Amino acid sequence: MGSPVVLLDIDGVLNPFKRPHRGYRRHRCSPNGVTFKLWLNSGHGRVLLELAETTGAELAWASYWCDEANVWVCPRIGLPELPFVPIPRYPGITEGGTRGAWKARHVASWAQRRPFVWFEDEPDVTDCVAAEPGVGDHLLVPVDPQVGLTGEHIERAAGWLRSLGG
């Protein structure tokens, strides 16, 4: 089965769409040569590392940012370089789907039956990942993209990971 994984999305989860509340700082970044503003809370790194340490889980990126997350996000929130799900850019409407289905397909394949928690803001990803063949035990923690990741999300994930009994 393998150790559980905590999968992290960036836009809408660590980078809320609405101007964030206290604790966030704006950063300019240029992944793939396109410059834009990224709102990040440096406290998220500490909280996520603690979640992984206390539950025996591994942290990994599940975002279109892929390895760019290690360059632009990790150093700004205090995370080490993390493995990532290789999710190619969504090509638009495809056979079988939506953005959620597209991401879910890649996440399920990458996780290879390992249990996982996924912090994600795509509204249809819960149903999509459950429909993927061979997906392991998982908990999708829906995050409001206007607000981003909160302590309640972390607590929900921690409770589920502890219930695995690993």
What does this structure look like?
It comes from Actinomadura viridis. It holds the Pfam family HAD_SAK_2. This is Secreted protein. With 166 residues, the chain is α/β, with parallel strands linked by helices. It has a single domain (5-163), classed as Rossmann fold. Helices cover 33% and strands 18% of the residues. The protein has six helices and six strands. The protein has helices at residues 43-55, 68-72, 74-77, 99-111, 125-130, 151-163; strands at residues 5-8, 24-29, 36-41, 58-61, 116-120, 138-142. The strands form two sheets. It has a four-stranded parallel sheet with strand order 4-1-5-6, with helices on one face. A two-stranded antiparallel ribbon has the order 2-3. β5 (116-120), α5 (125-130) and β6 form a beta-alpha-beta unit. It is globular and about 40 Å long. The termini are close together. The model has no long low-confidence stretch (mean pLDDT 89).
